[in-house]
Amino acid sequence: MKPSLAKGTRDFTSLEVARRRYIINTLQKNFELFGFQPLETPSFENLSTLTGKYGEEGDRLIFKILNSGDYTSKVNQEDWENKSHQKLTSQISDKALRYDLTVPFARFVAMNHNQLTFPFKRYQIQPVWRADRPQKGRFREFYQCDADVVGSESLLQEVDLVQLYLKSFAELGVSVTIHINNRKILSGLAEFAGITDKLIDFTVALDKLDKIGKDGVVKELLERGIAQESIDKLDFLFNQSDDALENLLQLKEKFAGNETGLKGVEELEFVITQSLNLGVDIQNLVFDITLARGLDYYTGAIFEVKADEVQMGSIGGGGRYDNLTEVFGVKNIPGIGISFGLDRIYLVMEELGLFPEGATSKTEYLFANFGGNETVEALKLIRQLREKGVSAEMYPEAAKIGKQFTYSEKKGIKNLVFLGEEEIKNGTVTYKDLEAGEQKTVSLEEFLG
């Protein structure tokens, strides 16, 4: 039977692994420059920890793990016969693969808050799993690279995270635009239009504007039971200017007496203004009033990062989630975090040819195998190179030199080294630079540098 991969998963070649490490190392360096400390959590959590945190759709995409042993032995017969999947799930599964890194982080904070120093800043780079439909840039197993701060309500955290995004992507060579909104503004809009009870329906439809256009959004709003009168009040949303601060000023006027909406405008105005004061180009930071991601737990700022030169979904996102630890019985621990989409960033960089030559992992020297005493002397020299941090290996068999050349070329090894009887006698080393096609004989001291 021919082997195959599970849908939505991938193998990674040595080249791909090296390039992914290049991205991870860049992000990790910047996380630590900004004061974040590393954290790792288990690949699976109690199912009760994850469910109810991502909304109905998110709960459906959680990979459940069957209980060990005969998981059907304690199943209610009536539920089994009625195929009641919701009731059956809790009877046959009490664990699940983590859906993201934020909820496990909130669980960690809730369990350890008495030992943590607040504000607590952590970064986490680990895989997550979602039973989603695979498509370009979307996989069922993928890495998230998160940076979160808990224990601070200061809006300077939002400003700092904008800087972290832009610095990291600039070092990777990816030109991006950060789209930013505020949950309080969305709540204020619902209040302004008299549809507070339809907040979720309103924002879900509005979030699709870039995909289905104004007519599509209006149609969906009507289908979700929102009156035409309310939709007319919100018509200005479809005619935003390119000036973020001008759009916020317009909202201020419409939110007169709307405490929640005005608070959202005030917060967003601070983040944008301070970011601009720190040298952020206004073109890189866009107030996107239709942005409504993660509404089930975001309470303030909402971020989404998009690549400027490649048609791809978001390559980063996050927001403020001041109430998340409350579901674990711990109150008053505000938080905010952002995530980098490693897999999508990889696709963007690959499409644009942004990986530097140094991002690949290659052996520097391959020693030709002549057998006998020459092999012993070559192994001694290889050991000295490795002690100096230089990668080197020996061809395993004393094969024809042509075969050893071919191996070296296919592996992309730059130098083929010849340490034969003559070189050993003279204390020299002969090596050929396969890229330049040049061959040199140098003293042993010069070769070892």
UniProtKB/TrEMBL annotation:
Its EC number is 6.1.1.21. The keyword Aminoacyl-tRNA synthetase applies. It is found in: Cytoplasm. Pfam families: HGTP_anticodon, tRNA-synt_His. It catalyses: tRNA(His) + L-histidine + ATP = L-histidyl-tRNA(His) + AMP + diphosphate + H(+). GO terms for molecular function: histidine-tRNA ligase activity. It is an enzyme of class 6 (ligase). Gene3D superfamilies: Anticodon-binding domain (3.40.50.800), Bira Bifunctional Protein, Domain 2 (3.30.930.10). Keywords: Aminoacyl-tRNA synthetase, ATP-binding, Cytoplasm, Ligase, Nucleotide-binding, Protein biosynthesis. InterPro entries: aa-tRNA-synth_II, aa-tRNA-synth_II/BPL/LPL, Anticodon-bd, Anticodon-bd_dom_sf, His-tRNA-ligase, HisRS-like_core, HisRS/HisZ, HisRS_anticodon. Residues 1-396 form the Aminoacyl-transfer RNA synthetases class-II family profile domain. Its main location: cytoplasm. Belongs to the class-II aminoacyl-tRNA synthetase family. PANTHER family: HISTIDINE--TRNA LIGASE (PTHR11476:SF7), HISTIDYL-TRNA SYNTHETASE (PTHR11476). Homodimer. This is Histidine--tRNA ligase. It comes from Chryseobacterium indicum.
